[in-house]
Amino acid sequence: MVTMKEISAQAGVSVSTVSLVLNNRDKGRIKPRVAAQIRQVARDLGYRPNLMARSLKTSHTHILGFLSKEVATTPYAGPIILGAQDAASQYGYVIMTVSADDPRSSEETEISALERYGVDGFFLAEMSNRKAQVPSSLQNYPTVLVNATDGHPASSTTPNQIHHTGIAPDERLIGYDATMRLIHAGCTRIAYVGCSEPMLAEGLRLEGYKEALREAGLPFDSSLVTAVLNNGPALHSVRELIETQHPDGIFCFNDARAWYVYDTAARLGLTIGKDISVVGVDNHRIFAETLEPQLSTVELPHYEMGYWAACKLISMIEPERELDFSTSPRPLRATLPPLDSEGDVLIHCSLVDKNSVITQ
Amino acid sequence: MVTMKEISAQAGVSVSTVSLVLNNRDKGRIKPRVAAQIRQVARDLGYRPNLMARSLKTSHTHILGFLSKEVATTPYAGPIILGAQDAASQYGYVIMTVSADDPRSSEETEISALERYGVDGFFLAEMSNRKAQVPSSLQNYPTVLVNATDGHPASSTTPNQIHHTGIAPDERLIGYDATMRLIHAGCTRIAYVGCSEPMLAEGLRLEGYKEALREAGLPFDSSLVTAVLNNGPALHSVRELIETQHPDGIFCFNDARAWYVYDTAARLGLTIGKDISVVGVDNHRIFAETLEPQLSTVELPHYEMGYWAACKLISMIEPERELDFSTSPRPLRATLPPLDSEGDVLIHCSLVDKNSVITQ
DNA sequence: CTGTTAGCGCTTTCAC
DNA sequence: GTGAAAGCGCTAACAG
Fold first, then answer.
1. What is the pTM of this model?
2. Pairing relation of β-strands A121-132 and A143-150?
3. I need a labelling partner for A88 at 20 to 30 A (CA). Which of A61, A294, B88, B232 fits?
4. Partner residues linked to A96 by β-bridges
5. Closest nucleotide relative to residue B17's CA, C1' based
6. Whether residue B58 has pLDDT greater than 90
7. Are A58-169+302-347 and A172-300 the same fold in CATH?
8. What average pLDDT does this structure show over A87-105?
9. What is the mean pLDDT of chain A?
């Protein structure tokens, strides 16, 4: 690793001059010719600043700590991290990841590890949308929740608790949009296959479903609603729902639950997208690549949430900095909320139309 | 952040004494009473070392750089990172992640970012098993490939290229074990549903399939073999294979392809695990939680590869250090190769028996 | 046994 | 315009 000292020797100037020039603070201070020469030498020697040393002085590391729960078992971590990374890398930051669900070392231990490296701020990422408890050790850091909202009420009795910014899918709108899609396709007996595990998303998507029905003047019929978990029991519940209630459209809590509809349809000789319409939630790659006909589904914007969260975090760390979504390295598949949003920020998820809804 | 200086003041000793004690180098040098007092003060003040400062001095950051390709679109990143993190955290390391598939910033840029932070070594992770080209900028760092092997031949004509250690699934054995499972269940017409995309795993799993057939004295019949991609076309190929060839067992390249068998079975009124047996590869959570009957499948040990790779990397950085797999925070679902393995290390994946294979 | 000193690579104030 | 000097928090060689 070549240092400023070597450059200064080579260029016959002092280290401080080198520092000034390489940090572009030379305008009107250092003679242009000298500056140019220093830059040249730096380039020739392949100089790269030692960020540890810089951080020590500036106490500003440009490291963002990414703390995630349940990475082990869910497939969503990748896209969220990637989104955060893309934004970070764009603005000269880097991400240090730790997981908060190690059965042995506690969350506090992991946070502490990141603190010792002097991270400038934290992400707290959940793998399914929930109200998260922000550890008190993060109170003094810029912190953004990803796929979560702050579980600590804003108007709390414990007054010195900060209500942290968090970004999460607008679950109610997911239910509303998905159901509306079926309504607009002409479905009139629309079932909902929910999730029997307690999840924030479940109640909200169901609400959205009801709201869409109401708005369309369709009756809410609880016998068209079921909540299932996994594998056989789930499949049987869905099969029974379809066989006894004969819905013409089904809104499923997620793509996995839509699979039960596909399987049942195959068994009953029904054609998805013709005899029965289905809308899922997730647009998970695995289902997107596998199901036939392809499933119309509301995409959960994990990449986008990661991207937004990183932009938000950077803007909290450097309030004066101008950030711009339009320069994201990958296309954003959902409209990001403005960066000055605070508190619980909801993102409107896109419905991806494929072939599982009837076309009139 | 409380510093050693504050502790030294509080305890009435010099900073170097504090340093000695807090790094446990005080035995036989510092009076036990003084040492104890220093430790007490440190605890009272909640001292935590500034790792940046330490690194500056020791040029040893305890940061591992994790460089991954294709994180965007695959669900495997989480488990690999988690495995690496668990090992890292256990041995006092931390992981900095960057992705090498940003369409704009190049791999070199990302590596460079990690280098500037002084990472002690690199992971190079692929999302599907392949021969990876290790960037020349990593030649001088301890580097371990994850889910990949070094694409640069060991006996190369370019002599000063190092052949890096990489860990990857033993694909041939996957094909062999899966097929053997079907053979032992009594299947005699065993089909293979492969992947039509060029992938390292495809050829090797097919080889393992053939080898198992040969060993069992079953003929290889190319009309029982197909290679498919996604969605409709894949489903139709599988359906045709089943309808024309009537296999009694099917080894599928992965769980997703097994779904085509499930769908076809549902349509034809065949019962999986009775009329027809299926073995997949992946044990992907999404299929594990969804399919009914549950799919017997060879598990790809992403967590384990990440864990092994981190242990390997740490042992390269600190050769004298004693590492021990038995202390992993999560159960290891595959037997890890010994840590002194070099070059292309293959991991024997476990076949997870569920209910998609006939029981006699 | 413990303190002094120097220095890791960089930034920044203040003299010249 | 440029350099000298101090110091970020820590480690380590060397004195005492």
1. 0.95
2. parallel
3. B88
4. A65, B96
5. C2
6. yes
7. yes
8. 88
9. 94
Q: Which residue of B has its CA nearest to A55?
A: B52
Q: Looking at beta carbons, which residues of chain B come within 8 Å of A78?
A: 71-72, 74-78
Chain B nearest-CA distance from A32, in A, is 27
DSSP state of A357: S
Task: Determine whether the distance from the CB of A19 to the nearest atom of strand C is below 7 Å.
Answer: yes
Instruction: Kindly report, residue by residue over B171-210, the tens digit of the pLDDT.
Output: 999 999 999 999 999 999 999 999 999 999 999 999 999 9
DSSP E strand boundaries for chain A: 63-68, 94-99, 121-132, 143-150, 165-169, 190-195, 225-228, 249-252, 277-282, 296-299, 344-347, 351-352
Q: Is the Cβ atom of A36 within 7 Å of strand D at any atom?
A: no
CB half-sphere exposure, A313, CA atoms < 13 A? 36
- Report d(CA B134, CA B144) in Å as an integer: 10
Which tokens sit at B324?
Answer: 């021990």
Q: Which residue is nearest to nucleotide D7 (CA to C1')?
A: A57
Task: Provide, as residue numbers in chain B, all residues whose Cβ is less than 8 Å from the Cβ of A99.
Answer: 82, 85-86
**Domains of chain B by residue range:** 4-48, 58-169+302-347, 172-300
Contact A81 B89 (CB under 8 A): no
Antiparallel, parallel or unpaired: β A351-352 and A296-299? antiparallel
Q: What is the pLDDT of residue B1?
A: 84
Residues in A touching B103 (Cβ below 8 Å): 329-330
Superfamily for the B58-169+302-347 domain:
Response regulator (3.40.50.2300)
> CB of A103 under 7 A from strand D?
no
Distance A51 CA to C8 C1' (A): 13
Q: How does pLDDT run across B139-169, given as a tens digit for each residue?
A: 999 999 999 999 987 665 565 678 999 999 9
CATH of domain A172-300: 3.40.50.2300
What tokens does A296 get? 């119309």
Q: For residue A251, count other CB atoms closer than 10 A to its CB.
A: 35
B31 beta carbon < 7 A from strand D? no
Confidence of residue A252 (pLDDT cuts 50, 70, 90): very high
Q: How many residue pairs from chains A and B have C-beta atoms closer than 8 A?
A: 198
Query: Could you give the residue ranges of the DSSP H alpha helices within chain B?
Result: 4-11, 15-22, 32-45, 51-58, 77-90, 107-116, 171-184, 200-215, 231-245, 255-268, 285-290, 302-317
Alpha helices for B65-127 (secondary structure H): 77-90, 107-116
Q: Write the pLDDT tens digit of every residue in B267-312.
A: 999 999 999 999 999 999 999 999 999 999 999 999 999 999 999 9
